[in-house]
Fold these 2 entries.
Entry 1:
Amino acid sequence: MSGDQLLPGEEPVPEGTDEAACRETPDVNGAYPRLTEDQIARLTERGQHRSTAPNDVLIQEGERCETFFVVLSGSVAVVEDYGTPEEHVLRVHGPGRFMGELGLLHGQVAFYSAVAREPGQVLVVSVDELRRLVARDATIGDVVLRACLGRRALLVGQGAGFRIIGSRYSPDTRRLREFAIRNRLPHRWIDLETDEEAEGLLRRFGVGPEETPLVIWRDTTLLRNPGNAALARLIGLPALPAAGCHGDVLIVGSGPAGLAAAVYAASEGLSTTVVEALATGGQAGTSSRIENLLGFPSGISGAELTERALLQADKFGARISIPAEATGLRPEDDDHYVVAFADGSRIAARAVVLAVGARYRRLQVPGIERLEGTSVHYSANVYEAQQCRTDPVAVVGGGNSAGQAVLFLAGYAPKVYLLVRGPSLEAHMSRYLIDQVDAHPQVEVMLHTEVTKVVGRQVLEELDVVDNRTGRHRPLAVRGLFVFTGADPHTEWLAGTIALDSRGFVLTGPEALEACARPEVWHGRGRSCMTLEASLPGVFAVGDVRSGSVKRVASAAGEGAMAIHFVHRHLGHSAVPGSMGTPAPVGGSDVSPRIRHKESAWLA
Ligand SMILES: Cc1cc2nc3c(=O)[nH]c(=O)nc-3n(C[C@H](O)[C@H](O)[C@H](O)COP(=O)(O)OP(=O)(O)OC[C@H]3O[C@@H](n4cnc5c(N)ncnc54)[C@H](O)[C@@H]3O)c2cc1C
């Protein structure tokens, strides 16, 4: 149906009326599909019909919605700030369309209300039933998942959801924004420094600027400088399971490695908990476009990849808690581990998968900290890029993430300098990126170049760079600096518990066994340390945090999947998934000497 077609019983839009409020919203890239009669019939087997009257509220903004609604007749409006002076219609759905976006499947609260506009009928299906159907019925699953992903992207783009009011110079504003951005939560940032709306809102809520940052939602909820956990609970992101909870496997970190481990563990029947300190997706979630991932010929954004993986893990029953920062790991007598968290809580599991990845290194330049978050960034996403529309920016680094960032930022900024310490890009950047960087008219590559000084008190005004061959300095007038200079593992909390290499990455397999401080933990097990297993039996390390790993999305995800195979072996499951029902070998190493030789070549 085109956007100009009227719904049954609908009148033409009178002159001067808000058209969005009257007509059905046209589909945008599969975000508003119409279910077929056959699909509706399959859903009907699991749901009930319900009559609607005008102004019936089916979904209430700010509340968790447990129901999936399909419009059978009449129409339903999706409204932001329903019942307030700011109320406005985001879209209208007619027969065959359904309500809900990503939050529905993730158990988050609704970011809008859904209100019936006229007498009609809807099909009501519980979200649990919907989840079961999505898992089993490929066509319905595909239509619903694609729509939910598309709708979340549209909501984020529209600045729907909660508001963060705070100064661009406040570290807490930066923290809240980073949490919201990286978790892809619909929100709008109102800058205390430049946004005229800020003053009016502060006055309305009777709050002084010194009490910012604030999180405001629906004119009814106001949080003063909340912690990330408080914001997460407001939105309905799941908290840690109750203390004393015992599971089969606890996965620490939810980048590609952790999410892959979650999908395989949960789909193979293990009770699975994932804990994440900051945001699902890890480093990959900050990538504007991943182009070398098998199966995505035109690339996929890190955000979309993450949402897809999350839905998949969710669908198989993995529980994912955010924010939950693991701070300690301790073996317990009865063959399980206890992981402690920053908020004092603990979780026990029979096996632990460490998928904690790495974080980008800071540039060692005096005064750079004061510009972090305002003009110095360690990732390049659309929010940061939007701040660089008029001014040149610089990217530091010679690897693939620097190359990607340059190309992405060149779509926004008038000029992008790529500052590389070494003599060429070939050493660390993939050929496909080098070719695009070299060919881009807005990009200037500066080799043998290092940043020596940042100029600017609150925002970056200029960089001083030096040619490390000649010692000649040059000023660069840029307003944004994006740093991609290698990464350090997130393993401070593991030092002294498991064997790490000299740079802090987790040793696994034969290397872990060799470096194991307490070899007696392996005695009597009838097996040696397995591939991906750390120096404690039943603790595995996957992805970027593992010593010798390849530092790619695909390899991280592959290792996450593989680790679960070894988790089954550790748990003594006789038929290990993937081994065609063959019992896991016991006694000696899990790999033949020939295979082990190949494996160490790969790890090197
Ligand atoms: C900007 C950018 C672009 C990239 N582009 C590509 C690309 O195009 N192709 C490609 O193959 N690779 C790319 N990479 C590399 C790729 O993203 C990484 O190799 C991959 O994300 C590693 O996955 P991981 O799961 O091992 O770790 P990470 O992605 O680092 O995830 C680790 C997660 O663990 C969490 N965590 C850390 N410590 C704790 C703790 N104590 N408790 C709980 N949680 C914790 C972190 O918050 C994080 O979410 C890119 C990286 C970046 C930064």
Entry 2:
Amino acid sequence: MAKREPLAPEDKKALNRTNLQKLLHILRFVWPYRMWFLAGLLALILSSLTLLSFPYFAGQLLDIASGKTVSWFSSINQVALLLISILLVQAIFSFTRVYTFSVTSERSLADLRLAVYRKIIWQPMSFFDSRRVGELISRITADVGTLHDLFTFTLAELLRQTLTLILGTAWIFYLAPSLTAFMLLTFPVLVILALVFGKYIRKLSRQTQDKLAEANVVAEESLQSVQVVKAFTNEWLEAGRYAKALTDTVSTAIRTARYRGLFISFAIFTLFGGIVAVGWFGASLVQRGELSVGMLFSFIIYTSFIGGSIAGLGDIYTQVQRAIGASERLQEILQQQDESNQPQHPEALPRFAGKITFRNVWFEYPARKDVTVLRNLNFTIAAGEKVALVGPSGAGKSTIINLLMRYYPVTRGEILVDDRPVLSVPLSAYRKHIGIVPQEVILFGGTIRENIAYGKPDATDEEIRQAAEQANALEFIMAFPEGFNTRVGERGVKLSGGQRQRIAIARAILKDPAILVLDEATSSLDAHAEVLVQQALEKLMAGRTTIIIAHRLSTVRKADRIFVINRGELAEVGSHAELSTRNNGLYRYLLSLQLQES
Ligand SMILES: Nc1ncnc2c1ncn2[C@@H]1O[C@H](COP(=O)(O)OP(=O)(O)OP(=O)(O)O)[C@@H](O)[C@H]1O
Ligand SMILES: [Mg+2]
């Protein structure tokens, strides 16, 4: 049963110094765009200030209308004009703010995304063993997305609301001290009460959602494996499980509803009660002639601004916490060691001759350090030799290849190519000399041309064509109406196993490596495709050191030597003729199994 993940820890980040420092660390991506950011900040401050002056003049409009003379204006027309101008100026500042903050966040976040992606793709293989792809993707999508909100709205809102809160309060305090004091005693208390209550409600509705998600898991799992359910005629059982999950959901939802109802009536009552109280106090001031109607009007608008900003700051607090969680996870990736110290265009090494030596190689995978996978492996493969690796499943054949590719460092011992320790050669230059035709060919979602050219990105059309021809792929490629421009993968044609293999062979031919690794496909092709693939492979192997993880007898027979790998050790070495006659030999045994089968 899939267990649901516990409540996201991202919601529980305290705003302490270390956490804020993590956030600041990610903010360094904004530094190159600091001029844009500063411009936005300025526009933000100006637009907040202009907006804050609005209620004041709106109040004066009322005062003039009720016959009072106010300092600067004599007619309501003047005030109305001023109000319109304030709105206009405010509109310009707002536009500038939104635009410049967007420029800042879009550019800096693209930089951040790229930095995280580069970090990830340069990680050594062992990094990917311990992480799920989905998790990595959500780093560059969801986590960076959270920061996007932070840069575009949250930071700006934080500033704006703080400004409104402080300046607004100071200003009305200046305008109407006693009324403000009264308001401050009631209003914020109510808003904060509502916030706390609201938070509790949110927690409850989160529980409801979790319960619903649990119910969904039940439905999803059973529907995905509907064949199993039906095979066991367990429809009733599954329906029962789903019904139970639903009952849980309903009771949680109803409990939440009780609190939500309470909350809403409480909020309406107290907030309007607060307004009544402040209004009552203000009206009594007006009655005694201590406050003008216009001033009371301004005051009420200011108060709603202030109430709004207190509520807004609560939301912002949550968002900043979330952003800290996201930046923490991103920072963790950005701090990983990687393999990117490799030059992008490594100095071309002279072509390898292709001699491979494993000397006392011991190995265990970093993810499972307690299991020794290769034990004291010693062998030499001469330049141009063809060696077949055979052995039971799990013996360590693919691991030998992984080590040769330097996906993982050996635990003990060393690997040499042309008598040079491989570690003395820069990684990317090294891998350019090794080609792989894997068991399961994975094509990228581009055209056939792009997929072949993956072996040599600067290949000319003629080279690509020749490679395809040698790989026996030209015929089927040209049979597509769009030829080399045919799209493959999810949005294009689906190629058959044999076709995909020939694309991979063409790729390897184009790369022209000194050392070739073939992981033979276990799934069998039909006789015709088999012949085409075999012919292509033979052309590819000519003049290269080749290591084949062999499953087919025909391949094994043609190899110069056969290495029988068993439990991480080299059990037998020899030609087919030698090994197949060895008494009690493992190869002979494996051979007899295969012969029985066919
Ligand atoms: N990435 C990995 N992390 C941890 N252990 C691994 C990893 N890959 C393989 N192993 C373990 O190493 C051992 C050797 O695996 P390997 O893939 O080399 O076998 P193989 O000989 O290629 O088998 P097969 O013929 O089935 O492909 C196995 O016990 C396997 O469980
Ligand atoms: Mg394998």
